[in-house]
């Protein structure tokens, strides 16, 4: 691995640009499929899936914001719209009067359960099924290496 702090060489530049284009196009395709199939946005799905996997279908607003790499304020505005649609509700956090817990409603659980199969099918069609087992393993290892570096602090 090169530690040169100068310009990327041709191969490094090709890989970086291909990765960025792939990530953008893949996210756009999967998100477009999800909106078409379920009416949910990527942030809706992220919130609902996290809550559906959480104990008591509940999580702190700050925990959700951290997971989504959003500010608490930005997520709070998004949650207000989700709350208006009946997908989530807020409740006070008993151990922190300033904090809020976000709770998955029955409607939100039905929405994520209905959306998940088509979402998984889209991820498979546009990503997983295009790669063999070795490629998936290597990509997972690469992602873990970069994530460990970026989340070290």
TrEMBL record:
<dbReference type="GO" id="GO:0006950">
    <property type="term" value="P:response to stress"/>
</dbReference>
<dbReference type="InterPro" id="IPR036390">
    <property type="entry name" value="WH_DNA-bd_sf"/>
</dbReference>
<dbReference type="InterPro" id="IPR036388">
    <property type="entry name" value="WH-like_DNA-bd_sf"/>
</dbReference>
<protein>
    <submittedName>
        <fullName>MarR family transcriptional regulator</fullName>
    </submittedName>
</protein>
<dbReference type="Pfam" id="PF12802">
    <property type="entry name" value="MarR_2"/>
</dbReference>
<dbReference type="InterPro" id="IPR039422">
    <property type="entry name" value="MarR/SlyA-like"/>
</dbReference>
<dbReference type="GO" id="GO:0003700">
    <property type="term" value="F:DNA-binding transcription factor activity"/>
</dbReference>
<dbReference type="InterPro" id="IPR000835">
    <property type="entry name" value="HTH_MarR-typ"/>
</dbReference>
<feature type="domain" description="HTH marR-type">
    <location>
        <begin position="12"/>
        <end position="148"/>
    </location>
</feature>
């Amino acid at each position: 691995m090169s530690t040169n702090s100068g310009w990327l060489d041709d191969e490094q530049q090709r890989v970086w640009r291909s990765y960025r284009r792939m990530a953008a196009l893949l996210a756009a395709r999967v998100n477009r499929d999800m909106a078409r199939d379920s009416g949910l946005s990527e942030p809706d799905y992220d919130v609902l899936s996290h809550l559906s996997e959480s104990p008591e279908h509940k999580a702190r607003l700050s925990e959700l914001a951290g997971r989504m790499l959003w500010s608490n304020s930005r997520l709070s505005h998004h949650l207000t719209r989700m709350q208006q649609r009946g997908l989530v509700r807020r409740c006070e956090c008993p151990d922190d009067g300033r904090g809020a817990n976000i709770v998955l409603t029955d409607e939100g659980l039905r929405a994520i359960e209905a959306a998940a199969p088509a979402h998984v099918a889209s991820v498979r069609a546009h990503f997983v099924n295009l790669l063999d087992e070795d490629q998936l393993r290597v990509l997972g290892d690469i992602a873990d290496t970069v994530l460990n570096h970026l989340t070290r602090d």
